[in-house]
Write a structure and sequence with these properties.
It is built from 11 helices and 9 strands. The chain is globular and about 55 Å long. Keywords: Signal.
Length: 282
């Protein structure tokens, strides 16, 4: 009996030591809107970020533990300041590398040469869709069509070209809001003439958000996207293990099923730009 107690005690000590060594990998996301994060109580649809975190945790993780962290872009930049500025990785500098940023692209303001300084894993193609008041003719191929108008934009997000430059030059005014509903309300209440929303967000809202689906009926959707891109995961260059784990997940049949549950058409023939556009931060 005493021998069994000793063995059990040793087992508990080993288990505790193993748990203490478990590294927490933060799954970082600054997109508060669906399909990335779903604030409403929809059974089985907590949001892509939560589901990706759960799927990574369920896989063989060799002691890794994954935690979803949703925060504003301003706070995210502050958290990753040393990486974005290029000070990490470097000898003599403490660089915490237990993180993955979901739903990003190299063009969205992660510092110089972000496309080569970080590891990137493709997630799915998406696009920014222009939504305007009826009668307002905006055309991404004619930047002059935006002149004199007001755009409703997400607070803290930098606009894609050429809108970012036009706002800086005073050619376009900007009204900030938080969330898809707030952006549409600014257009519908005549505080702005147009906005843009991610295609996947619009698709999800039409299926699961009756309030937003109704509002979408009162704006016109511009056929040509403002911009198209491949949403990717950004991973520190020092973590090939995290890249391999995420790549294994995105290449599995479960990944396609996950995207389908959220109404994401990952096979759609959208024009996608993989090359960085430095002014395109979101």
């Amino acid at each position: 009996m005493r021998k069994e107690s000793t063995i059990f005690a040793v087992f508990l000590l080993l288990f505790a030591a193993s748990a203490a060594r478990a590294e927490i990998v933060r799954i970082l996301d600054y997109h508060e809107q669906p399909p990335f994060n779903v604030l409403q109580d929809l059974p089985g649809l907590p949001g892509l970020t939560a589901d990706v975190t759960t799927m990574l945790q369920a896989a063989e993780n060799d002691g890794l533990s994954y935690e979803a962290v949703v925060l504003s872009r301003v706070r995210l930049n502050r958290n990753l300041e040393s990486w974005i500025s290029g000070n990490c990785p470097a000898e003599g500098v403490s660089c915490e590398d237990g993180w993955i940023v979901l739903w990003a692209t190299p063009a969205w303001g992660w510092g110089e040469d972000a496309d080569t300084r970080f590891r990137w894993v493709d997630l799915y193609p998406d696009a920014n869709i222009l939504l305007a008041k009826p009668g307002i003719m905006v055309d991404p191929s004619r930047p002059s069509s935006f002149t004199g108008l007001t755009i409703a934009a997400t607070r803290g997000h930098r606009l894609p070209p050429p809108l970012d430059r036009m706002v800086t030059e005073g050619l376009v005014a900007r009204q900030d809001g938080e969330g898809t509903h707030a952006l549409l309300k600014r257009v519908l209440s005549d505080r702005a003439e147009f906005t843009y929303i991610m295609r996947s967000t619009i698709s999800f809202a039409r299926r699961h958000r009756a309030d937003i689906a109704t509002e979408l009926q009162y704006v016109q959707e511009v056929t040509t996207p403002l911009s198209s891109y491949m949403l990717q995961a950004m991973i520190p260059p020092t973590r090939p293990d995290l890249e391999a784990r995420l790549r294994t997940l995105t290449e599995s049949p479960e990944w396609s099923k996950l995207l389908q549950r959220y109404g994401v058409d990952a096979t759609a023939n959208h024009p996608v730009s993989h090359s960085p556009q430095r002014a395109g931060e979101r």
